[in-house]
Amino acid sequence: MTASFTALPIEPQPDTTTCGPTCLHALYRHYGREMALAQIIDEIQRLDHGGTLDVFLANHALARGFSAIVYTYNLKVFDPTWFVGRKTDLAAKLRAQARAKRRPKLQVATDGYLSYLAGGGEIRYADLNRALLRRLLSNGEPVLTGLSATYLYRSAREWGPDDIDDDVRGEPVGHFVLLAGYDRATREVLVADPMHDNPQGSQNYRVHVDRVIGAILLGALTYDANLLVLRPCAN
């Protein structure tokens, strides 16, 4: 068991679309950076339909003296060949892709990632496996992740403006949580979840690492599928 396998305090998210800012608030507080949750929610860029993207959370942290590394598995935005061999100009690739694909959500995500790269953020592509999660969680630093809530919770897909459970008409739903520790003996990850009434019955719970990995990868269906590592800079 890692030394970091302790409950991570996290506030309940105020509504169904503020899981990302609520996770960021908990992470800031973990590092001793006090900031009102309402202020973070107000400052984070939002998507037209509600919710946010990992890169918008990262940009908020970059502007406040944090370093940021995104491990991406979102093939809707990043091509695997961009990370093979010699160093690729990711900004140039993102701009070229945005010109070729005029999808509104891709345009918004591209703008966010261009700002992220310009602000000093790093993007990595690595196999998502137990070894990577163990390494990232070994020093007690929480990792913010965007994943599939539908897969994580084993819950029904959701439909309509009120996000009602509907196993026929419903669509998969994305979510942000914090990974707060890894128990090597049981192969479980400690999850800090901003959703107060989640199916696990607690805001801090254990999930087998294989389910966590599956949930992260399936987050690509909702423009999630990432690990966001934020650390306060020394200065």
Automatic annotation (TrEMBL):
Pfam families xrefs: Peptidase_C39_2
Source superkingdom: Bacteria
InterPro entries in UniProt: Peptidase_C39-like
Record domain Peptidase C39-like: where: 133-195
Name this polypeptide is given: Peptidase C39-like domain-containing protein
Organism: Desulfurivibrio alkaliphilus (strain DSM 19089 / UNIQEM U267 / AHT2)
